[in-house]
Design goal:
- The protein is an all-beta fold and about 400 residues long.
- Helix content is about 0%, strand content about 40%.
């Protein structure tokens, strides 16, 4: 059952930061390009999703194109910067094609899990597993029925028991997207099909996270304001809309990415647009549905613009992310937002693109005392994997 509020109450609950609390510069922060993807595509090109990092500092991710057959790759970059293509998606597409918007999840044994937006048995996308030897297994091919999900564009969530949870951007019973589960035993089920109304629709690049057996995520569109939702979903498929973004967009519009949680169950995420300057926001939604705007991105040379990607959160409550564009060169930034709402620009991608540019759907992750991420373009010509550290 959706929670509804009057616009007056929503505005009263929101804390909107002013222009005076925009970005400060970061000192003593260095970006290192770990790998620049070649423009010839042999090592993959255009990594448009984020990365995963293991305990040894190895970085794993996907490219949406390139590789042996041109349909994308799964890669590993070690701490010295040596890249290994773990898998090139095949020309016939049976093992999936184009892992657009989806990075990989790591289990304790080092296996990787991800999705492709196309390919598989029915050409509606796949969920795959790659083991330590590089062997790929298709866990599920979407499109087995007319009500199945289609085109998964988000990294799956792996719980401690080995179950996978994720979303499809379209498909489902009414073609507005779905939330699925694949158990550790390999059983697939759709937990929820979006109806395209107040419950939200099209969780485009928005995966889910799990807390106390409840799933949390966002939809890019629909809801009471038409600009997307933040929702909770039980394992039995009961959805609660915690927040619907308003018609006028003052509280943000169109979240493309999912949310991260703190210990109290508060949800943090980004909207691509809306906010005070229509350049996107960083928001917080409490378990009871109260939304607070922590930061309004500004269309200026000192701030980022239009965050497609989601957030990472450290143990002290700082939030980290990227914007697709903005910054001094217009090629995007890496930012930090403190619990107080103060934003710091940690890195601005430079005009010549040697450090990469346009992070697109690629946020950052925390690991080994640093931030790790990817850019869709720049570097050696087709994107980068990078590290930002003190």
């Amino acid at each position: 059952m959706s929670k509804t509020r009057s616009r007056t109450n929503l505005r009263a609950a929101m804390v909107v930061l002013t222009v005076g609390m925009l970005a400060t510069a970061a000192y003593g922060v260095k970006e290192t390009v770990l790998h620049g993807f070649n423009s010839n595509g042999s090592d993959g090109y255009n990594p448009d999703a984020g990365v995963a990092v293991d305990a040894n500092g190895n970085v794993y991710g996907t490219t949406s194109g390139g590789g042996t057959f041109g349909f994308g790759t799964v890669f590993k970059v070690d701490p010295s910067g040596t890249e290994t293509v773990l898998h090139s998606f095949n020309a016939d597409g049976t093992d999936g094609t184009f892992p657009f918007g989806s990075s990989v999840a790591l289990d304790k044994a080092g296996n990787l899990y991800g999705t492709t937006s196309r390919g598989g048995t029915f050409n509606f996308g796949t969920v795959f597993k790659i083991d330590l030897s590089g062997q790929e297994t298709i866990l599920y091919s979407f499109g087995a029925s007319s009500t199945d999900g289609s085109q998964p564009n988000a990294t799956p969530f792996l719980d401690a028991a080995g179950n996978l949870y994720g979303t499809t951007s379209v498909g489902g019973a009414l073609n507005f997207g779905s939330v699925y589960r694949i158990t550790a035993a390999g059983s697939y089920s759709i937990l929820y099909s979006f109806k395209g109304g107040n419950d939200g629709c099209f969780p485009f690049n928005s995966g889910v996270v799990l807390r106390n057996q409840i799933l949390y995520g966002t939809t890019n569109q629909c809801g009471t304001g038409g600009h997307g939702t933040v929702y909770a979903l039980t394992q039995r498929g009961v959805e609660t809309v915690l927040h619907s973004f308003l018609v006028d967009g003052v509280d943000g519009t169109n979240p493309y990415a999912g949310v991260v949680l703190d210990a109290a169950g508060n949800m943090y995420g980004t909207t691509f647009a809306g906010g005070s300057f229509n350049a996107g926001t960083v928001f917080k939604v409490t378990p009871t549905g109260t939304e607070t705007i922590l930061h309004n991105f500004a269309s200026s040379a000192t701030d980022g613009v239009n965050p497609y990607a989601g957030l990472a959160r450290d143990s002290t409550g700082n939030l980290y992310g990227t914007t697709q564009t903005g910054g001094k060169s217009g090629f995007g930034v890496v930012f930090r937002v403190a619990p107080s709402g103060i934003e710091t620009i940690l890195h601005t991608f430079v005009a010549n693109g040697v450090d990469g540019f346009f992070p697109y759907f690629a946020g950052v992750v925390l690991g080994k005392g640093a931030l790790y991420g990817a850019t869709n373009e720049g570097g050696a010509g087709a994107g980068t994997a990078y590290k930002i550290a003190p």
